[in-house]
Amino acid sequence: MILGAVAIATEIRTTNPTPPGQQMSGTVVTCVKKALEKRETAVIAAYTTYQNGSLATLNTRKTSLLAAWDKTTKSDVKAAITAAWKAYKTSTTDLKTALTTARK
Protein backbone atom coordinates (compact mmCIF):
# COMPACT_ATOMS: atom_id res chain seq x y z
CA MET A 1 0.00 0.00 0.00
CA ILE A 2 2.82 2.44 0.81
CA LEU A 3 4.57 1.75 -2.49
CA GLY A 4 1.40 2.59 -4.37
CA ALA A 5 1.10 5.92 -2.55
CA VAL A 6 4.72 6.81 -3.36
CA ALA A 7 4.21 5.94 -7.02
CA ILE A 8 1.05 8.07 -7.22
CA ALA A 9 2.72 11.00 -5.45
CA THR A 10 5.70 10.79 -7.79
CA GLU A 11 3.46 10.62 -10.80
CA ILE A 12 1.47 13.65 -9.68
CA ARG A 13 4.61 15.64 -8.93
CA THR A 14 6.30 14.90 -12.24
CA THR A 15 3.26 15.45 -14.40
CA ASN A 16 2.37 18.85 -12.93
CA PRO A 17 4.15 21.63 -14.82
CA THR A 18 5.91 24.37 -12.90
CA PRO A 19 3.54 27.27 -12.30
CA PRO A 20 4.16 30.15 -14.73
CA GLY A 21 5.38 32.51 -11.99
CA GLN A 22 8.13 30.06 -10.97
CA GLN A 23 9.52 29.30 -14.42
CA MET A 24 12.78 30.90 -15.43
CA SER A 25 13.12 32.29 -18.91
CA GLY A 26 16.07 31.38 -21.10
CA THR A 27 17.24 34.99 -20.99
CA VAL A 28 17.46 34.95 -17.18
CA VAL A 29 19.32 31.65 -17.15
CA THR A 30 21.77 32.88 -19.79
CA CYS A 31 22.40 36.10 -17.86
CA VAL A 32 22.97 34.27 -14.57
CA LYS A 33 25.32 31.78 -16.21
CA LYS A 34 27.37 34.60 -17.81
CA ALA A 35 27.66 36.41 -14.48
CA LEU A 36 28.61 33.18 -12.71
CA GLU A 37 31.24 32.36 -15.32
CA LYS A 38 32.74 35.85 -15.03
CA ARG A 39 32.81 35.79 -11.21
CA GLU A 40 34.26 32.30 -10.87
CA THR A 41 36.92 32.99 -13.50
CA ALA A 42 37.93 36.15 -11.64
CA VAL A 43 38.16 34.29 -8.32
CA ILE A 44 40.33 31.59 -9.88
CA ALA A 45 42.58 34.23 -11.45
CA ALA A 46 42.88 36.09 -8.14
CA TYR A 47 43.89 32.95 -6.26
CA THR A 48 46.36 31.98 -8.99
CA THR A 49 47.97 35.42 -8.75
CA TYR A 50 48.05 35.15 -4.95
CA GLN A 51 49.61 31.68 -5.08
CA ASN A 52 52.27 32.69 -7.61
CA GLY A 53 53.04 35.84 -5.63
CA SER A 54 53.32 33.84 -2.41
CA LEU A 55 55.82 31.46 -3.98
CA ALA A 56 57.87 34.35 -5.32
CA THR A 57 57.80 36.04 -1.92
CA LEU A 58 58.96 32.86 -0.18
CA ASN A 59 61.79 32.42 -2.66
CA THR A 60 62.85 36.04 -2.19
CA ARG A 61 62.81 35.60 1.59
CA LYS A 62 64.91 32.44 1.32
CA THR A 63 67.46 34.17 -0.91
CA SER A 64 67.60 37.21 1.37
CA LEU A 65 68.06 35.13 4.51
CA LEU A 66 70.82 33.07 2.92
CA ALA A 67 72.53 36.26 1.76
CA ALA A 68 72.24 37.68 5.29
CA TRP A 69 74.41 34.88 6.61
CA ASP A 70 77.13 35.81 4.11
CA LYS A 71 77.67 39.08 6.01
CA THR A 72 80.79 39.33 8.10
CA THR A 73 79.63 41.08 11.27
CA LYS A 74 76.87 40.22 13.71
CA SER A 75 75.22 43.59 13.30
CA ASP A 76 75.18 43.27 9.50
CA VAL A 77 73.69 39.76 9.74
CA LYS A 78 71.02 40.93 12.16
CA ALA A 79 70.15 43.97 10.02
CA ALA A 80 69.90 41.85 6.87
CA ILE A 81 67.69 39.25 8.59
CA THR A 82 65.42 41.98 9.95
CA ALA A 83 65.19 43.58 6.50
CA ALA A 84 64.39 40.20 4.88
CA TRP A 85 61.54 39.49 7.31
CA LYS A 86 60.20 43.04 7.01
CA ALA A 87 60.16 42.79 3.20
CA TYR A 88 58.45 39.39 3.44
CA LYS A 89 55.76 40.76 5.76
CA THR A 90 55.13 43.76 3.50
CA SER A 91 54.89 41.55 0.40
CA THR A 92 52.53 39.12 2.12
CA THR A 93 50.30 41.94 3.32
CA ASP A 94 50.21 43.43 -0.18
CA LEU A 95 49.28 40.04 -1.66
CA LYS A 96 46.46 39.55 0.83
CA THR A 97 45.12 43.04 0.12
CA ALA A 98 45.25 42.40 -3.63
CA LEU A 99 43.42 39.09 -3.19
CA THR A 100 40.70 40.69 -1.08
CA THR A 101 40.28 43.49 -3.61
CA ALA A 102 40.13 41.07 -6.54
CA ARG A 103 37.49 38.90 -4.86
CA LYS A 104 35.09 41.83 -4.37
Question: How is the secondary structure organized here?
Answer:
Elements: H1 2-15, H2 26-68, H3 74-103
Helix pairs in contact: 2-3
Structure description:
The structure is a single chain. This protein has 104 residues and is mostly helical. The protein has one domain. Helices cover 84% and strands 0% of the residues. It has helices at residues 2-15, 26-68, 74-103. Helix 2 packs antiparallel against helix 3.
Assembly state of the chains shown: single chain
Task: Report the structural category.
Answer: mainly alpha
Total discrete domains: 1
Question: Count of helical segments?
Answer: 3
The coarse silhouette is rod-shaped
**In which range does the helix fraction lie?**
over 70%
Element-level helix/strand string: HHH
Major sheet details: none
| Cα-based radius of gyration, to the nearest Å | 29 Å
- The termini sit apart by 55 Å
Mean pLDDT comes to: 85
Low-confidence stretches: none
Give the strand tally: 0
Approximately what portion of the residues adopt beta-strand conformation?
Answer: under 5%
Quick recap:
The chain has 104 residues and is mostly helical. Helix content is 84%, strand content 0%.
Note the main attributes of this structure.
mainly alpha; 104 residues; single chain; 3 helices
